[in-house]
């Protein structure tokens, strides 16, 4: 009865690769590939930039206008980090002044599906999470 064996955190009951790795004793927290990747994707701006670039390539100024609360320095750094990780491609056009366009690489584009699921989940549960935070804050006070 596999349906009855649902593990915490999985709806299907199937063990994730992480759960299998952890259960086998092969988990090394200091060299965890999951943490290494999610440290970048879980920051404040990366997911938003990946989703924006998933629609079409953008110039730097377009990205700044789409995300008005990101500083120029943080946008530059986040784009560099995503480029370093092979998720974003930066193309410089020989104009005066030079124009730069950012787009997703095939690796970056492969994130759109999984990130869309997470974004849909966050949107669907945002109210419940805010409510839980309010309850927690009132109980802690």
From TrEMBL:
<feature type="domain" description="HTH hxlR-type">
    <location>
        <begin position="32"/>
        <end position="130"/>
    </location>
</feature>
<protein>
    <submittedName>
        <fullName>HTH-type transcriptional activator HxlR</fullName>
    </submittedName>
</protein>
<dbReference type="InterPro" id="IPR002577">
    <property type="entry name" value="HTH_HxlR"/>
</dbReference>
<keyword id="KW-0805">Transcription regulation</keyword>
<dbReference type="InterPro" id="IPR036390">
    <property type="entry name" value="WH_DNA-bd_sf"/>
</dbReference>
<dbReference type="GO" id="GO:0003677">
    <property type="term" value="F:DNA binding"/>
</dbReference>
<dbReference type="InterPro" id="IPR036388">
    <property type="entry name" value="WH-like_DNA-bd_sf"/>
</dbReference>
<keyword id="KW-0238">DNA-binding</keyword>
<keyword id="KW-0804">Transcription</keyword>
<dbReference type="Pfam" id="PF01638">
    <property type="entry name" value="HxlR"/>
</dbReference>
